[in-house]
Amino acid sequence: MIGRVYLDHAATSPIHPEVVQAMLASFTNNYGNPSSIHYAGRDARKALDEARAIVAGSIGADEREVVFTSGGTEGDNVALIGSAYANRDRGRHIITTAIEHPAVLEACRFLETQGFDVTYLPVDKDGIISLADFDAALTSETILVSVMYGNNEIGSVQPIRAIGERLEKHQALFHTDAVQAFGMFDMDVAELGVDMLTVTAHKINGPRGIGFLYVKNGTNLVYPFHGGEQERKRRAGTENLPGICGMAEAVRISLESRKQKRSDFKDYKQVFVDTFAESGILFEVNGLLEKGLPQVLNVRFPGVSVEQLLMNLDMAGIAVSSGSACTAGTVDPSHVLVALFGADHAGVRESIRISFGLGNSYEEMEKAASEIVKVVQRLCK
Ligand SMILES: Cc1ncc(COP(=O)(O)O)c(C=O)c1O
User: Fold this and answer.
1) Residues 242, 326: one domain?
2) Rounded Cα–Cα distance for residues 64 and 213 (Å)
């Protein structure tokens, strides 16, 4: 008997039992401060170094290029604001996309108040930017390009490598928010041509409040935290060692399991699409079914209010999301769907995000898909 089904892994994901074990071991054994010179400090330092090696290795980086952060929001903010301030003598232009996470978009809005000029690249119907638009936006004044790897709402994957190639001989630094894509795809920072890359642990079955920012050696950044000399003076503050050890374990597991996940999640998507098609309900997939992030499926049900759909699904024990902020019973349309459809299009109020992860099964997908069909049929009556 299948009970409740959690399909909101892109919001946050359940912690892996082995991650819990790694964190418990760290809490118990590594209580020292990694900066202390006595035996307890040395034990903690060893654990920190080992975790850093795992994390760096997962993206083909040098260990010195990893800065531990409190998660994706911090990584994005440091990358954007830090590189804008450090390079403002070279120009004041920044390029990003209209569908970034608020951690990037709001950092850009802040930079606009500080005299920077930001280009927000539009996306096509599949949620992908055009390289021609990118080429047209790039100027000799551009100091930073921030383009997300995979979108958290519709799963669209951007041409990161192609942008990296274009910027090879350009002064602009290149940052990618890889929060949703990390742990799904093989990732090598040199191949991608990025200078900075943001990751957070809680999307890959690690703990919340911990992440890392890859910063290529030699990158000019202003870091906001001042204090102790942790992280080579780039992020002051006693390290969150249990979090870091938990993240390293989550990274290790994600490297081992990503191939299987890609294949499972492809099948899961198909269960939904087939069940919807067989039932005869009206639906459209937002974004590309095959080429997007494996764990994200965004679907529109024409004529169905997303608020009612979410409420009814919750009552049926199915947790999915709309990707929109819900205030006082009204849904603020998601900026990603607005970028896709336009603000006046009904699609921005008729779409849900289903996202897969640890613990899900094929049977759960069958149950969730048929519950969605039932609710949609009821709401369409
Ligand atoms: C694409 C993307 N970037 C950044 C973040 C923020 O990460 P965190 O919650 O670790 O601050 C998220 C989390 O929702 C995300 O999906």
Assistant:
1) no
2) 11
- Residue pair 226/232 in contact (Cβ under 8 Å)? The answer is no
Residue 321 DSSP symbol:
B
**Ligand 1 atom at minimum distance from 152 CA:** 16
Distance 213 CA to ligand 1 centre (A): 13
Q: Tell me the best of 106, 180, 247 to mutate to test the pocket of ligand 1, counting ligand atoms within 8 Å of each CB and taking the most.
A: 180
- DSSP string for residues in 172-211: -EEEEE-TTTBTTB---HHHHT-SEEEEEGGGTTS-SS-E
Same domain, 247 and 286: no
211 and 101 together in one domain:
yes
- Rounded Cα distance, 368 and 359, in Å: 14
Cα 146 to middle of ligand 1, angstroms: 14
Cα–ligand 1 centroid distance for 29 (angstroms): 30
pLDDT at 137: 98
Domain boundary among 218, 253, 288: 253
Supply 31's token pair.
């209580």
Mean pLDDT for the stretch of residues 281-304: 96
Domain that holds residue 298: 5-13+257-380
pLDDT at residue 381 in the model: 80
Record the pTM: 0.97
Residues with catalytic roles: 326
pLDDT tens by residue, 1-21: 778 999 999 999 999 999 999
Q: State both tokens at 348.
A: 């921005």
Provide the 8-state DSSP code for 143: E
Q: Of 8, 73, 296, 322, which is best to mutate to test ligand 1, by the most ligand atoms within 8 angstroms of its C-beta? A: 73
On whether both 225 and 297 belong to a single domain, the answer is: no
At residue 161, does pLDDT exceed 70?
A: yes
| 370 Cα–ligand 1 center, Å | 30
Assess whether the C-beta atom of 158 lies below 6 angstroms from ligand 1: no
The residue type at 309:
L
Buried-state track 287-320, b at ≥16 Cβ within 10 A, e below 16: bbbeebbbbbbbbbbeebebeebbebbeebebbb
Q: How many CB atoms lie within 10 A of CB 237?
A: 12
Residue 175 CB–ligand 1 contact under 6 Å: no
187 and 270 share one domain? no
Average pLDDT on 298-303 reads: 97
